[in-house]
Design goal:
The complex is a heterodimer. Chain A is of the alpha+beta class. Chain A has five helices and three strands; from the N terminus they run αβββαααα. In chain A, helix 1 crosses helix 2. The mean pLDDT of chain A is 93. The chains are: A alpha+beta, B alpha/beta. Chains A and B meet through helix 1, strand 3 and helix 2 of A and helix 9 of B.
Chain lengths: 123, 398
């Protein structure tokens, strides 16, 4: 069902856990529907220097969370905002069609985390 | 890596004796049972022997057994066949909210075709209250269909009590016994049932072989029209090897059923009591009135498909009723019907043991299951509780 890359990120997820000193936090999804992603970012000089996640959900949701937190490290906020559902799925060598929407919340949660950071900055 | 199959309710491996019995009917004894010459007669004889042994598994007469290709077909046949045979008497059916999709979706089809259907609620254990059945019966009611045992939560329904009510009111009673026949003793006489569906692969027979018990004298409209096979009630050249396999599997189930139960139940109880030591885990279904090999849970703060896949990575195969593990992305209606909130239903996981399950398997499972749960809870944002969960509803577009 899942690609090797999805299984790798699902069984050995990177950047797991709460970040107590995060500069921005974004939450997307709802456990009633299936998946919830919480993404934490640390920003320095408009660049994402660290990212972590906590996810309630299926294998795809966990793999997407792991992948998005890996991808954004070192990106500028503008670059990070260009990440989409499609680019995340592509980075994971594809996702099953039924998982594309409700489990692929990484880009949305990330966007919310960036918005949260910016609103805290008063920008 | 060793693999431990704990999904026996999904299907079972074929018993080697069953395979041996089937093999000659693929090549040497390939005759069409309707042919009048020797190979045909041999095939006919094999089917009738299988019918006899299949009938005796549920204490029925041979002529009360109609072979079908699946439990789903038997269920479709029961509902449509009885509804169309009795539509002059009335157009009302009663089923429960925890039926298999092959009952539920057939009932929905009949609703679109002008029949009315009552969907009976169940209690927190998934048990249908016979009094509710009685209250739901009207002058229009022609069929009651209640599942015998739930494959999802293991609960065994009080069919014998419901049958007393059905008899008193003169309503036909069907039960979907796919998950129970071969796993617990099922006797159509003591259940007092009119129709009963069951499938061979649930008791180590082949897939593609199932049957419906139709009590002698019961009128039923065929689902498949054509030739005179199965007394004209189910046309189509018989799947001789599969039917022979079902007959052999039924014979073995009848002989071995108590031995299987005595082996499986203590292991299942050990699994359940160990699992219940884990924090925030709930046994779903009835604690006692349940299938002997059945253990089903909801685990809080984590999701079923993730559990299923991590267990599979450790060699343990099981099932889940979570939305994410279903292709339709909907939480199991059975779990919702027993009052499990949707966010908890996400943590559904189902283990079903079989005759090949060993104590070693269960020990390995008991060791592995808590590890998998801890691992996923470490990832979960809810590890400390369902913070902000109250009153939330699904807003993500699927």
């Amino acid at each position: 069902m899942y690609s090797e890359k999805v299984m790798d990120h699902f069984t050995n997820p990177r950047n797991v856990g709460e970040m107590t000193d995060a500069h921005g936090i974004g939450v997307e999804g709802n456990p009633v529907c299936g998946d919830v992603m919480k993404i934490y970012i640390k920003v320095n000089d408009d660049k994402i220097v660290d990212a972590k996640f906590q996810t309630f959900g299926c294998g795809a949701a966990i793999a997407v969370s792991s992948m998005v937190t890996e991808m954004v490290k070192g990106m500028t906020l503008e670059e990070a905002l260009k990440i989409t559902k499609a680019s995340l799925a592509e980075a994971l060598d594809g996702l099953p069609p039924q998982k594309m929407h409700c489990s692929n919340l990484g880009a949305d949660a990330l966007r919310k985390a960036i918005e949260d950071y910016r609103s805290k900055q008063g920008k | 890596m060793k693999t431990i199959y704990l999904d026996h309710v999904a299907t079972n491996p074929l018993n080697p004796e069953v395979l041996e019995a089937m093999l000659p009917y693929f090549r040497e004894r390939y005759g069409n049972p309707l042919s009048l010459y020797e190979p045909g007669m041999k095939a006919r004889e094999a089917i009738e022997n299988a019918r006899e042994s299949t009938a005796s598994l549920i204490n029925a007469k041979s002529k009360e057994i109609i072979f079908t290709a699946s439990g789903a077909e038997a269920n479709n046949f029961a509902l449509k066949g009885i509804a169309y045979a009795n539509q002059n008497k009335g157009k009302h059916l009663i089923i429960s909210r925890i039926e298999h999709h092959s009952i539920l979706n057939t009932a929905r089809f009949l609703e679109k075709s002008g029949f009315a259907v009552t969907y009976l609620p169940v209690d927190k254990y998934g048990t249908v209250n016979p009094e509710d059945v009685e209250k739901a019966i009207t002058k229009e009611t022609i069929l009651i269909s209640i599942i015998h045992a739930s494959p999802e939560i293991g609960t065994i329904e009080p069919i014998a009590e419901i049958s007393k009510i059905a008899k008193q009111k003169g309503v036909v009673l069907h039960t979907d016994a796919v998950a129970s026949v071969g796993n617990i003793p099922v006797d159509v006489q003591s259940l007092g049932i009119d129709l009963l569906s069951f499938a061979a692969h649930q008791f180590y027979g082949p897939k593609g072989a199932a049957a419906i018990y139709v009590k002698e004298g019961m009128r039923i409209v065929p689902l498949i029209y054509g030739g005179i096979q199965e007394g004209g009630r189910r046309a189509g050249t018989e799947n001789v090897p599969a039917i022979v396999g079902m007959g052999k599997a039924a014979e073995l189930a009848r002989i071995n059923i108590q031995k299987r139960i005595d082996h499986i139940m203590p292991l299942r109880d050990q699994l359940i009591s160990n699992a219940l030591k884990i924090d925030k885990i709930i046994l779903t279904g009835h604690p006692e009135q349940r299938l002997p090999g059945h253990a089903s849970f909801v685990v809080e703060y984590i999701e079923g498909e993730a559990m299923l896949l991590l267990l599979a990575a450790k060699g343990i195969y099981c099932a889940s009723g979570s939305a994410c593990s279903s292709k339709a992305l909907k939480a199991s209606p059975v779990l919702i019907s027993i009052g499990i909130p949707a966010h908890l239903a996400q943590g559904s996981v189902v283990f079903t043991l079989g005759e090949d399950t060993t104590e070693d398997n269960i020990n390995y499972f008991n060791e592995t299951f808590p590890q998998i749960i801890s691992r996923l809870r470490e990832i979960s944002p809810y590890a400390k509780g369902w913070e902000g969960m109250e009153g939330s509803s699904c807003t993500v577009k699927k």
